[in-house]
Amino acid sequence: MSVGGSPGPGGAPADRLARAAAVVLDTDGVITDSARLHAAAWQEAFDACLRAHPPTDPQARRPFGQDDYLRYVDGKARMDGAASFLASRQVALPLGTLDDPPGTDTVGAVAAHKERLFTERLRARGVDAYPGTLRLLRQLRERGVVMAAASASRHAGELLDRSGTLPYFTAVVDGTEATRLGLPGKPAPDLFLEAARRLDVPPGRTAVIEDSLAGVEAGRRGGFGLVVGVDRTADTTYRAALRERGADVAVADLSELLTDSTEG
């Protein structure tokens, strides 16, 4: 489906986005440069777990890496991401809950360990918005396009506030809201559909901008008019994977979505 009922899927990414009445953006890795903080926190938490519960297969004992983050964790709710990665390494732990004390004995404990590490890094180092994202947000606001931020992270509001981007958004649907409403995590489209509902714009006239494989799949499942994948890895295989999972177009930076008419 093309945004706004336009006759075809072709055109440059900026031209296709220009037909959207609303835009829903993921937070980590799309708006804010916070994905690196998440990845570092996950690595420390998972590596501790692998040391405490070494898999039988020596190959499965290798440290958590960037490919693991992109494949198993990125864009997902914490429990889902933790369970997905540990299953990939044949580490069988009781599920537990996110209220478990941080540690390595349950999936919930590993997720809680990651949460504590991420919070410490965020408070110590802060976070910035990508310059290209700021330019696009300004242009979209000038054009009267309504915007929402949607993220599985319960830190989304804090990240937007700390990066100075919160005023651009009419609605924010974060992990806390998703839990309150009982929304399933990505790749289910419910998080994005809720954001579009709050903007009062149908999915077919709304664009989704995401950097995770689970997120672009969620956009495709939700019937959104345009799904933009953001590839900050400089890895052509990841860009191809974004397209395979549902991205209509893929860009390295949101500045590629700018039109020439109003952006200075």
What layout of secondary structure does this protein have?
Elements: H1 13-17, E1 22-25, H2 35-52, H3 66-73, H4 78-88, H5 107-125, H6 131-142, E2 146-150, H7 156-163, E3 171-173, H8 175-181, H9 190-199, E4 206-210, H10 213-221, E5 226-230, H11 236-245, E6 249-251
Parallel strand pairs: 1-2, 1-4, 2-3, 4-5, 5-6
Helix pairs in contact: 2-5, 3-4, 4-5, 10-11
Low-confidence stretches: 4-9
How do the strands of the widest beta sheet line up side by side? 3-2-1-4-5-6
The number of distinct β-strands equals 6
Order of helices and strands: HEHHHHHEHEHHEHEHE
Strand residues, percent: 5-15%
- Specify the helix fraction band: 40-55%
Note the gap between the termini. Answer: 31 Å
Structural class of the helix and strand makeup? alpha/beta
Instruction: Sum up the overall morphology in one term.
Output: globular
Oligomer: single chain
Any idea what the CATH architecture of the largest domain is?
Answer: 3-Layer(aba) Sandwich
Described by strand count, sense and barrel closure, the largest sheet is: 6 strands, parallel
Tell me, rounded to a whole number, the average pLDDT. Answer: 92
Rg of Cα set:
18 Å
| CATH C-level label of the largest domain | Alpha Beta
Overall domain count: 2
Helix count?
11
Brief overview, please?
With about 260 residues, the chain is α/β, with parallel strands linked by helices. It contains 11 helices and 6 strands.
Describe this entry's structure for a reader.
- With 264 residues, the chain is of the alpha/beta class.
- The protein folds into two domains: 3-34 and 128-257, HAD superfamily/HAD-like (Rossmann fold, 3-Layer(aba) Sandwich), CATH 3.40.50.1000; 35-125, DNA polymerase, domain 1, CATH 1.10.150.
- 44% of the residues lie in helices and 9% in strands.
- The chain is built from eleven helices and six strands.
- A six-stranded parallel beta sheet has the order 3-2-1-4-5-6.
- Helix 4 (78-88) packs across helix 5.
- It starts with 12 loop residues before the first helix and ends in a 13-residue tail after the last strand.
- 50% of the residues are buried.
- Mean pLDDT is 92; it is low at 4-9.
